[in-house]
Amino acid sequence: xxxxxxxxxxxxxxxxxxxxxxxxxxxxxxxxxxxxxxxxxxxxxxxxxxxxxxxxxxxxxxxxxxxxxxxxxxxxxxxxxxxxxxxxxxxxxxxxxxxxxxxxxxxxxxxxxxxxxxxxxxxxxxxxxxxxxxxxxxxxxxxxxxxxxxxxxxxxxxxxxxxxxxxxxxxxxxxxxxxxxxxxxxxxxxxxxxxxxxxxxxxxxxxxxxxxxxxxxxxxxxxxxxxxxxxxxxxxxxxxxxx
Length: 243
Fold this sequence. Notes:
Elements lengths: L3 H19 L2 E5 L2 E7 L10 E12 L2 E14 L5 E4 L2 E5 L4 E2 L5 E5 L6 E3 L14 E2 L7 E4 L7 H14 L22 H16 L7 H7 L1 H7 L7 H4 E2 L2 E2 L1
Parallel strand pairs: 1-10, 2-11
Antiparallel strand pairs: 1-6, 2-5, 3-4, 3-7, 3-8, 8-9, 12-13
């Protein structure tokens, strides 16, 4: 016969396991497929880099706060301009929420303006309750256009938008229980593609913001601050070439 103490411990473990199970959310994410073409010629664009990130946020008295990434993926378009991400299922027990970045999809090729797609919950937030999520870009033909001018302010504004949209790779926030750090490891081709654009701008006499330069210059400090062990950006990027 079990002792009272053993019974109490057993009940406590059962209650704890029930509590943990009750706060776990299981999301199902549909596959993502789309085609990228040149806005002027209509021809497929091969080699455009595509990233998808599913971002978690938590509410607070002063608004939403970044919590972490549930998932990050990267691919490139094929000769037909097609890209594809497989669907997947993932559990989350963080008590955070997926909002419009479920996912955020970024499409970019040096020499073109980038495109960004997110979901838009115009129904007042009811979409947040959905456990099955579909990307806004799925099934679409995406057109990329070349900048209409070589003016510095136009290029710089575009570079800032790209850098801001990729800002999650700089987020190292162990005090907020960031789920996974070192996200640059998962989108190296996008970072290198933005660097190609930066090099073109420098050749035109411009001085754009650089995600690549930031990661390499701050490699040691960012890596040491990460919650989970990860490689240094310097081991991933060598003179602009992916290892």
